Amino acid sequence: MAINITGPEVGGYGEKFEVPYEVMSLLRRRQRARADKRWDEADDLRRQINEAGYRVEDTPHGSRLRIG
Fold first, then answer.
1. Taking 60 as the threshold, does the pLDDT of residue 12 lie above it?
2. pTM for this structure?
């Protein structure tokens, strides 16, 4: 499971920033839920990530995490 983390859209791709442990934990749990086809759980975890101020984008190469 690949996780690509990018900075704010105005800062462009590849900008480094620290992601709280709790958010990374939610993202990993979401990826496992998706792999196991537990879609309702994955949607709930995405909502929790969004509420923490991050956005998840799913790509063919894995999930991308963005601020905002």
1. no
2. 0.76
